[in-house]
Amino acid sequence: MANTVRLSLSDVFGMEGLSNVYTAEYRLPRGEATAFLSRRASPEEAQKLAEGYSRFLAENGYREKPVGETPLHYRVFVQEASFEVVMTAGPLLAGVHDATSLAAAVRLADALAKALQGRTP
User: Of 97, 88, 8, 73, which is closest to residue 42 (Cα–Cα)?
Assistant: First the structure.
């Protein structure tokens, strides 16, 4: 959606320590979702932050939902009608936040993963 790209500097999505995250909102055929992306200092830092965000989601009532083989081996979490996707690509933490349907979350995550594959330093 036009004019929705934003940079959040700290405690993004309510998680202490999650910082410097770009977001953009999307309206898809099966619902709305927000893509996010954050460049970290190293692939190890991105992976550690992805694991921390995954724990944060679980601690806040989300449960992991198996979705089979996915690009970049991302993880999907669900809580009622809210869907989250977490992935890394080299030094990038990326994913989908607060999608309104599983179909919207997976569609946006697949597009994001495809755009990131082979394009990270």
Answer: 88
